[in-house]
Amino acid sequence: MAAELPAELRRRFASVQEDLSAAPLPVRWVRSDGIHLTLKFLGEAPESRLPEIATVLRGAAGGIAPFSLAAEGAAAFPVQGAPRLIWVEVHGDVAAARQLASAIDAATARIGFAPEAREFRPHLTLGRVKGAARGDWRSILERAAGRAAGGFEVSEYVLFESRLGPHGASYAPIERYALGGAAGGGEGR
Question: Fewer C-beta neighbours within 10 Å, C or N terminus of the chain?
């Protein structure tokens, strides 16, 4: 489950990824159309479980109102040592984002998916580091960080199907769920 980002913000991240590709850091970049705010990762689930998953998600966050978040700056994770991810931190109404992630986690736990062991920390993954860092990649990241910013509204969450391919994962929406007070939602594929 994830919250989608506006196309303009994804285009901005694609430009940042292009700039960062010059860094001496072996990164497998997330396709720009796949950059989203992950709220819960279910892993592999048989297609036969989709109706059950979709049903439990329909009522998961009805009491949560739409909220605003802001993406601010590209960074490496972890901060110290060898990086594993290049990501953008998310600020704004983080309490509402945590409440939504928690509601989704609780709903999916009721049907047998393992609950999250760690606290939800909202972020947007730009790329995964696949090897040893070389040279002064941090200064390139710092210069690009200021361009990886922009606000977005979360008025729905989306159940996505993820498919791995030779150029990374692609995501197809299965069903959309409106947050309380938002129009639309509950639309299947």
Answer: C
